[in-house]
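Minutes, structural biology subgroup

Action item carried over from last meeting: produce the structure token record for Eukaryotic translation initiation factor 3 subunit G (Verticillium longisporum). EB confirmed the sequence was re-checked against the source entry. Recorded below for completeness.
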Amino acid sequence: MATPAKKHDWADDEDVDEVSTELPPTQTITNKDGTKTIITFRLNEQNQKVKTTRRIRYTTHTEKVNPRVAERKGWSKFGLSAKDPAGPAFDTTTVGENIIFRPSTNWRKDAKEEAKDPNAQAMKDKLKDKQVKCRICNGEHFTARCPYKDTMAPVGDSAAADVAAGMSDDVGGAAAGGAAGVKKGSYVSEMAEEQELRDMFERFGRVTRVFLAKDRETGMAKGFAFISFVDRSDAVKACAKMDGFGFKHLILRVEFAKKAT
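Output recorded by EB:
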């Protein structure tokens, strides 16, 4: 019985037109003059091998810095930056310009003249403990950034009315005044919160804004707040009802504030 012929597999045929795309490895040669020759290979758009030869000279630059600065650069990062690489991160660090200070030759003379000037020393003593104070609400911010500069500063027939509550002088605070239609109060607890004031005064009408001044360091209320109403009649009603109201072991005294000067 004849043996059947083996079926031919077209995959066994050699592709004579196939072009090898394997690239030789990169070569680095050190020259006698201290330079290095780097030979690389790549494929261009026509799928042809391209050989690139570059000669590089390495220069070592030595910089003398303060030993403390060099020590700090070796510290390991921590916190959210523990996995960041060495050096400043651009998303968290801003590198400033290195400014070189060159004192003048007669700086000692200028320092002596400044020390003898009584006006300069008086100005230093005057500004030493000076703090920013708003002219409208007496808060620790600039007058231009006061949240009540639109309702308290101008004098007009605006329907908005504000209520100011503050502690009297004998309990450690002072209330702030404002324009027409603004109320002033006394004996407000330092533990008061804006939402509590909003809940109390919203019973008399729609409240558009509540501002409670707080100390920046302690976070405690400074003893006065401002509540803005949409209708002036609601503000008058709130003034009549809330004057003498007990709030956090203190008795409120609510009244219309005076115009800011």
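Discussion: Residues 118-128 form the longest helix (11 residues).
Next step: EB to file the record with the rest of the batch.
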